[in-house]
Amino acid sequence: MENPYKRKKEPELVRQTILNAAIEIGATDWHHVTFQSIAEKTGVSKGGIIHHFSNKEELLDCIMKRSLIELTEWIIEEKKITGTENGSMAYLQVILKKNGDAHYKCTMRVIMQAILVNEKYVLLWEEWFAEHIIHGCRSEQNVNSLIINLVTDGLWYADNLGRNRISAHQKEQIAETLTRLSRDAKN
């Protein structure tokens, strides 16, 4: 590592490096994310990490917020590609299409682990979901929309937990069936 007194200070780059390392480490097990493990992965001193994030919870808060922003961007992009305004169908397509993307998988695993670790992240996820996917409360959805969201959640959980490997063909069939349900939900 260069002499810190001669190194250009790029706080946003260091911050993003720390966040990316925490996501990579946390994708396997959030409990392995420590300032020490991040320091070893990035070369940023523990003091440097603390300069950007005073504790692990602040770090997780930033990861969750950034992850939800990315997920929102992916959903918006999917809506543009497919020409749909249906958040549930865009959510389904993102889950199906992004599954092979390493960054996406790490991000989604960290979101899932955060939700399992702390109730405030469950509430943050539900708030995000209500705003970007269902535009309101799940209990007010019609049955077809609720089915689409529950199946998509199930695919999301299965992919993140590495369970119930579903073939590409099966995923296509699921998407086709849910697309029919989506059309029926409008009628």
TrEMBL record:
Superkingdom classification of source: Bacteria
- Residue ranges spanning the membrane: these are none
Sorted keywords for this record are: DNA-binding
Which InterPro entries has this protein been placed in? Homeodomain-like_sf, HTH_TetR, Tet_transcr_reg_TetR-rel_C_sf, TetR_CgmR_C
> Which Gene3D superfamilies does the record cross-reference, listed alphabetically?
Tetracycline Repressor, domain 2
SUPFAM superfamilies noted in UniProt = Homeodomain-like, Tetracyclin repressor-like, C-terminal domain
**Example of a GO MF term:** DNA binding
- Provide the HTH tetR-type domain boundaries: 12-71
Give a single Pfam family match.
TetR_C_28
Query: Which residues does UniProt assign to DNA binding?
Result: 34-53
* Protein name per the record: TetR/AcrR family transcriptional regulator
